[in-house]
Structures are given as structure tokens and as C-alpha cells.
């Protein structure tokens, strides 16, 4: 009988150990799963900021082209107004603000306060450029207007 009671006691101890081990395994699996769920959410903020800046640059290009085309089509002077203090760009056609873009916080912009596209031709008489520094990517994006035409050259330089 001694051997049977010893086996029963050993079996009970083994059950307790495996139940505790299952709890530890569950906690470890739960923490690993939580980590895998947390990592992408941390990266989403960075991706969102990059997409916001890239969308801003695309909008600037489209609005420059639209503002120039409106000078030709409507036969009126159109303007790009830039406020360095507010970090804001406005596109004006026929004295109406056609578009207003806030510069994202991730970048810093500078440039001339006003660029005017002449009616009928769409040319501008100022050799101006808008520069946007993007420290996170170590880039400077430059929109350089060409003298005597409404065209611009976009350059991406490293800082």
C-alpha cells in the first residue's frame, strides 16, 4: 500500500506543476501577442506623418499648375501667397482664395511672400523659390520658378 499512496502523491504533485506551468505559458503567450499588436500601432504614427507630408507636396504641385492655368484661361493675374509666420500657402484666382494649404508640422517652409502669374501668358516675373526642410528625412524640397515662364523645377536635396 505504501507504494500506491506514494504514486498517488507524486501524481497530485505533477498535476499541480503542470497547471502552474500552463498559467505561465498563457501569460507568456499573451505578452508576446500584445507586443506583436503594439509594434505596428507605434509605426502607424510615423507612416501617417510621412503620408501627410507627401500629400502636401503633391497638393502644392497641383495647385501651382492650376493657379497658372487659371491665369491663362481666365485672363487675370493669379497669385501664390506665402506666410512664413503662419506656415500657410494660399492660391488666389480672381481675388478669390482658391486653395489654402497648411504646411505640416514635420516640415518648415520658406520663400517669397507672393508669386504672380501674369494674365494670358501665365508667366511670372520673379525668380523665386519655395524651400521646405524635412529634418526627419534629412531632405530639402525646392520648387524653383524659372524666369520668364510659369514653369518650375522641383528638386529634392539632402541636408
Give a quick precis of the structure.
The protein is an alpha+beta fold and 159 residues long.
Describe this protein's structure.
The chain is an alpha+beta fold. The chain has 1 helix and 8 strands. The protein has one helix at 2-74, and strands at 78-83, 88-93, 96-102, 108-110, 114-117, 129-134, 139-145, 152-158. The strands form 2 sheets. It has a 4-stranded antiparallel β-sheet, with helices on one face. Strands 4-6-7-8 form a 4-stranded antiparallel β-sheet, with no helix packed on it.
| Terminal-residue CA separation | 85 Å
Helical content band: 40-55%
Q: How would you sum up the global shape?
A: elongated
The average pLDDT score comes to: 83
- Reading the helices and strands in chain order gives HEEEEEEEE
The secondary structure category is alpha+beta
Q: Outline the low-pLDDT stretches.
A: none
- Taken as a percent bin, the fraction of beta residues is 25-35%
E-strand count: 8
Radius of gyration equals 31 Å
Task: Give the key terms.
single chain, 159 residues, alpha+beta, four-stranded antiparallel β-sheet, 1 helix, elongated
Helices and strands in order, then pairings?
Blueprint: H1 2-74, E1 78-83, E2 88-93, E3 96-102, E4 108-110, E5 114-117, E6 129-134, E7 139-145, E8 152-158
Antiparallel strand pairs: 1-2, 1-5, 2-3, 4-6, 6-7, 7-8
Amino acid at each position: 500500500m505504501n507504494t500506491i499512496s506514494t504514486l498517488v502523491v507524486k501524481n497530485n504533485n505533477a498535476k499541480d506543476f503542470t497547471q502552474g506551468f500552463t498559467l505561465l505559458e498563457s501569460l507568456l503567450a499573451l505578452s508576446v501577442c500584445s507586443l506583436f499588436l503594439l509594434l505596428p500601432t507605434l509605426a502607424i504614427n510615423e507612416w501617417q506623418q510621412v503620408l501627410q507630408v507627401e500629400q502636401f507636396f503633391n497638393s502644392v504641385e497641383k495647385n501651382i499648375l492650376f493657379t497658372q492655368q487659371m491665369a491663362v484661361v481666365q485672363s487675370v493675374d493669379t497669385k501664390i501667397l506665402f506666410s512664413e509666420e503662419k506656415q500657410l500657402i494660399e492660391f488666389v484666382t480672381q481675388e478669390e482664395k482658391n486653395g489654402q494649404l497648411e504646411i505640416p508640422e514635420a516640415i518648415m517652409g520658406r520663400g517669397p511672400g507672393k508669386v504672380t502669374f501674369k494674365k494670358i501668358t501665365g508667366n511670372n516675373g520673379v525668380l523665386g523659390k519655395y524651400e521646405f526642410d524635412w529634418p526627419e528625412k534629412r531632405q530639402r524640397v525646392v520648387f524653383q520658378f524659372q524666369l520668364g515662364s510659369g514653369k518650375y523645377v522641383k528638386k529634392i536635396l539632402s541636408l
